[in-house]
Amino acid sequence: MSLKPKKSQTPSELVNRKDELHGPWGRINPEPQLVIALRLCKKVSPSTEETHSYPYRVLSSWRWLGGVGEEELKIEAGSDLVTIKGRGLNRLAEALDQNTLEILREVQSGNTVESENPIWVSSITISQS
After folding, report:
1. pLDDT confidence of 108, banded at 50, 70, 90?
2. What residues pair up with 53 in beta bridges, in sequence order?
């Protein structure tokens, strides 16, 4: 009996997969159901970042609004309503469905890295619902 060799990925496939899982916008864990908390990092000033952490058990719902231009992802987390704006956010909604979204980070526009990433988070707003 002969063993079939594993089909190798091309370097471009590896890069695309890596970009889909982490970037300046945050990180998605490749293992489903492994993440227990979602961490949100928002800029309060150019040199200061504020972090909010929510256990997945308090995330009650999320809604993605897409289309041409800026997208919006709304997450109900306990008594907070989290609004995320950017692009490629449908991928973040999929990661929420699988408990794999670990960190979201607000990134300022104008960065040359922005156009190189399929996902971009331009703002994170947290308010009491």
Report:
1. confident
2. 39
pLDDT at residue 14, as a whole number: 40
26 forms beta bridges with 23, 104
CA distance 107 to 18: 18
Cα separation, 15 vs 20, whole angstroms: 9
Query: Number of C-alpha atoms within 13 angstroms, CB side, residue 1?
Result: 1
Tell me: pLDDT of 116 over 90: no
* Number of Cβ atoms within 10 Å of the Cβ of 86: 23
Structure tokens at 128: 């009491």
3-class SS at 25?
A: coil
Are the C-beta atoms of residues 23 and 105 closer than 8 Å to each other?
no
Q: What is the pLDDT of residue 111?
A: 55
CA distance 64 to 101: 15
Q: For residue 14, what are the contacts with CB-CB under 8 A and spacing of at least 6?
A: none
Q: What is the DSSP string of 55-99?
A: EGGGEEEEEEE-SSS-EEEEEEETTEEEEEEEESHHHHHHHHHTT
**pLDDT over threshold 80, residue 18:** no
